[in-house]
Predict the 3D structure of the following.
Amino acid sequence: MKKAIFIGVLSHGTTSKSQADWLRRITPDCEWQGIDVDGPFQSQPRWSRSLAFRLRWGPAVAAVNRFVLQSLPSSKVDLVWIGKGVLLYPSTVQRIRQLAQTIIYYTPDTAFYGNRSRFFNATMSSYDLIVTTKSFEVEQYHRYVDPEKLFLTTQGYDPNIHFPRTNVKKKKHAVLIGLCEPDREECVRTLRANQIPVVIGGKGWENIVRSYYGEEGFTFLGETVFGESYARAICEATIGLGLMSKKFPELHTTRTMEIPACGTILATQKTSETTRFFKDDEVLFFDNFHDLAQKIQAHFSDPDHAQKVADRGRHALLSQPFSYPQIMSACLNRVGFETVLPTSTK
């Protein structure tokens, strides 16, 4: 039996936890140890966590590294999978390197924009494989690592979480769950100005909530909408808004996969990647938010057509290797680890 370690956030409802669970499932010949860095991080004061996010410095960073080092076994292991290890000191990575035959570093986030980490930049050469979902960063990665050690994949979805619920009835509203950005605020305000019911969730929406609180056609689900609650919220909506971030040149997002996986129409911008994944009759592509509002109204007025679009979008998604077990398997196969994919999922 091979020995493997997952280092990352293992809190319930997180994508990292989903990925760790699938890694266990597709590697039956591996005995996995999980090192959950969220515990020591969340135990620190808010100011310390803020410093860690912004500057990669302070007691929270030290606590995470101390916990990882204390949790590592004394004997050699075959594989270490690190999920978004932007807080790991070079000395911590060096210790992991001494223990592990193979190290995979996986991040669904940017590495050279808002999620920059001097620690990660200093340790890239220590990893056997770096997995990124950001095609626009590939050239920058090549400045640090051999192209053979970089694996470009897509964002994914968890087939055990993101699937249509037969006991959930579709409602005529659009749902947007995620961090608030000015562009997303503008989207919500445009939809509400066109009398389109909107359900939102996530952090940073205080201004929008103040503007529409108590108004018919507006629902705020709270700052934390994860796991089953998140999937049900997507399933209930006729339209799921998968908007790209304006903080960096994003070409697709996790919502690009999760929304159609839930059997809901994905509304998103056209990019070189979204148009590669889906055809015009499989999702709702829009040019601007006024165009979006008009197209949403058209779908609301023809539920049968809307259902056909949602079904086509889900079928297109399932025909491509976008699920977490498929993505995790491809990563492991790249470094010579055998995997066993499930014969069926939801």
